Amino acid sequence: MNKFINILIIPEGKEPSYNFRLSVKTLKILGGVVCIWVLLMITGTIFLGKLLDRSRQVEILAEKNQKLMEQNARVIEIEKEYKKNRELMARIAGLAGIDLESVGPNQESNYYIGAADTQRGNVTGIPGDGASLPERQLDSLRTPQGRPLYGWITRNFNPGENYGKDKHDGVDIAVKEGTPVTATATGEVSFAGWDEDFGNMVIIDHGNGYKTIYGHNQKLLVEVGDKVFKGKVVALSGNSGKSSAPHLHYGITKDGEPIDPAPYLE
Predict the structure, then answer these.
(1) 216 with 247: CB under 8 angstroms?
(2) Could you give the CA distance from residue 101 to residue 174 in angstroms, rounded to a whole number?
(3) CA distance 78 to 84
(4) Where in the sequence is the domain holding 40, given as residue range(s)?
(5) 225, part of any domain
(6) C-beta separation of 258 from 184 below 8 A
(7) Same domain (yes/no): 122, 46
(8) Per-residue pLDDT tens for 14-65?
(9) The model's pTM
(10) Is the same domain home to 142 and 252?
(11) What is the distance, to the nearest Å, from the Cα of residue 174 to the centroid of all Cα atoms in its chain?
(12) What is the CA radius of gyration of the chain?
């Protein structure tokens, strides 16, 4: 037998009363629906809370990742500065006649040819000098690598394929006058003198098809026939020749043809 529950609502005043008659079975169903709805609300609240917490964790991780990227960029900059300082120290040591074992970023093999070698007239890496290093290391020393000095590159290499317009057989590096200019590879000076376009200019023949050109110098510190080691100061930068401001013109030729120095600068 189905049981019923009567719900009587008697309002104040003369308004009529209301009588609701519900079966126990219906009440149980409504109670079950309410319980399910409450459980769903609780579950949804918990899930939403976890979702928001995950979202916050993702934001925190993104912030940490950004900071790590910034710190990594700073480390890279510090490493570059360290390498520059190492190279500068090696150049100063060369001027002082100190023979170091390594100069840093300019040499893959980390060999350094000191100033004492030039006093003996024997610069390792020049053909016929009786070099004692393996051929791979000698080839590394004779191949241009690194910058002859540090400054702003104001003009890049341009082969001038458009009928020679704006042709530029090297790169221009802006520096103050008197900055030491160093050889980027071991070789023999094939030209050291005045050029109508490049003013005081040095050309070094590296004996393997490569030649490097250093133009617009204030003062030359080498002569034709001098054997120079990688990192040796060969001139002081200036503003000579057809130049509008102090800078160094640095060029590289391979088998007589100008090539872009950019890949060799780092």
Answers:
(1) yes
(2) 30
(3) 10
(4) 4-54
(5) yes
(6) no
(7) no
(8) 778 777 777 777 778 888 888 998 999 998 888 888 888 888 888 888 888 8
(9) 0.54
(10) yes
(11) 20
(12) 40
